[in-house]
Amino acid sequence: MSDRAALLKGIRAWLVLFVVCLVLSGATAFPLVHELRWTEDLLRSLSVPEHLPALMHWIERVRHGLDTADADYPFLLYGTDWLAFAHLVIAVAFYGPYRDPVRNVWVVEFAMIACAGIIPLALICGPIRGIPLWWSVIDMSFGVFGVIPLYIVRSRIKRLEALAPYPAAVPAV
Question: Where do the TM regions start and end (predicted)?
């Protein structure tokens, strides 16, 4: 296998992994009410309340809030439907780098910027919305862990670009 083919195969494998994770994280935003009930039941069965009472209190509080919103204000959950949809749409954007990584490296760079943006969002909006700092750290970890495969993909795309020169991009008119 040539260096170019091996790089392309690796790039595509990392992109598929990233897209699968993006789709899964988006798809889980649809059934939040049910997922949180299942999570609470699972944590209770694992004796989490005795070992991590702050976590259990937070899960109970969020579940109560979602139950109330679902029963009395279901339109509020429409926002999480849009969150899920955004994840799915962003995942589709990665078809460009999958097809032609060098020309579409900007999608990967854009996603890296989005991962970096998670940190200030969590640090600013978390306290405003009453989110515990430890939960904001969990939220920020999505940006930290998300940027790792993207960085690997970008590095490999740059190596691929160095192997075979591509024609200059045609400027938009």
Answer: 75-95, 107-128, 134-153
